[in-house]
Amino acid sequence: MSLKLSFYGGAGQVTGSNFLVESEKGKVLVDCGMEQGADLVEEHLYGPFPYDATAIDALVVTHSHLDHVGRIPKLVRDGFKGKIYLTPPTKDLATLILLDSVGILAEEARMEGRDPLYETSDVEGAFALMEELEYHVEKPVAPGVSAYLRNTGHILGAASVRLSGEDGTTIVLTGDIGNSPSPLLTDWEPTPDADALVMESVYGDRLHPRHKDRVETLLKVLACAIERGGTILIPAFSLERTQLMLYELSNFFSAKQLPEIPVFLDSPLAIKVTAVYEKWGSTYFNPEAEAEMKKEKSLFEFPFLKATPSTQESMEIEQVKGQKIIIAGAGMSHGGRIGGWESQYLPDPKTTLIMVGYQAPGTPGRRMLEGAREIRLGGHPVRIRAKVENVEGWSAHADRDELLKFAEAALAKKRPQAIFTALGEPATERFLAQRIHDYLGARAIVPEYGQTWEITKESVKEVQH
Ligand SMILES: [Zn+2]
């Protein structure tokens, strides 16, 4: 008895998470994500899946980031009719993320002169197949395969997936592992029962600043920005990062660490995502944050915060005199409403732009980070006289040492036959694999796209196609 594990995405790359696990009778996918580069629409996105979508029994989703869910509507369009299992918060968030992606894909496709990858009807087809699966419930999902989810502390609802065969052979796939401790989420749970472990390695070779330092730095940067007297722009990632920013701002203001100035949440998606965080906060946050939620109803609101979902409300921000903070997407300044604010305010030397996340090569955010004094936004050149600040440590991913701790915890009881380092750049995956081997004495494998491995309780072997 064995399980087969194939890597069809997220091997040697951070994005495009897609793994196939097969028993003798059943086929289960874990994640069906979008590959993301400088350009969302890449040639390989449009190609066929390397497996028959109609033959897949079920899909289990680790979390709602686009690089883990973004190709689900295409899978449905290609004939997948099985169930899609995910935690209740992940279901709500994936619904928002997928509906939002329809517009982005349509826009990109128009520029490239081709049909979009999928449309709203495909997304709705996916919703009809979704079935909620709570953490810590063993659920048969396909002939000869059952699934069990555990919290990974990455974003709200994120889970690792343990898939078990009939004889108890187990494969655990981590999805993304959180930057614990988080002020909102419970720390990641160990997975001490894998015969084979597939773990993420995005920051497998880097360390984050300490959590205390990242809050202090953010406060310092904000205080300086307010002192400069101009508008403060924060390009924000809608999911998790925006909620963390609101949470910290709320704390700073209520502790009177910053003077009270109006804050605008100018992102329709981030506003909806924040509502999902409020909906599940009293049951899916860590105990302290849950208690705070029950007492205060929301951790993300404060008296002079204004959400501006409609275009009209967004336009009215301009009329507000005096200093203000504007939080708007997209996080790398590559679209969304932030571009308009940047065009308007970056030429003003009193403005401060605060970046709180990874800026991919080729994006306007990255160019500003590298010191460009002029960028193109919406087809127009924009002169940058504003101060550009970069605040590190707000990533939702575990760093080098935390990943090693995760691997060590996975080895504590039942030693996996092998640990695969996936979902990272090739050099990072190799670095983490080397450390797992050297420090923990475990067999670590850097998987390649298209490889299939046979997993039993006694061995892990590559299957030659
Ligand atoms: Zn993620």
Automatic annotation (TrEMBL):
Signal peptide (from-to): none
InterPro entries tied to this protein: Beta_Casp (IPR022712), MBL (IPR050698), Metallo-B-lactamas (IPR001279), RibonucZ/Hydroxyglut_hydro (IPR036866), RMMBL (IPR011108)
SMART domains named among the record's database cross-references: Beta-Casp, Lactamase_B
Pfam families assigned to the protein according to its UniProt record, in alphabetical order: Beta-Casp (PF10996), Lactamase_B (PF00753), RMMBL (PF07521)
Hydrolase is among the record's keywords: yes
Lineage top rank: taxon: Bacteria
CDD domains: TTHA0252-CPSF-like_MBL-fold
Keyword Hydrolase on entry: yes
Keywords: Hydrolase
One example GO MF annotation: hydrolase activity
Annotated protein name in UniProt: MBL fold hydrolase
Organism: Candidatus Kaiserbacteria bacterium CG10_big_fil_rev_8_21_14_0_10_56_12
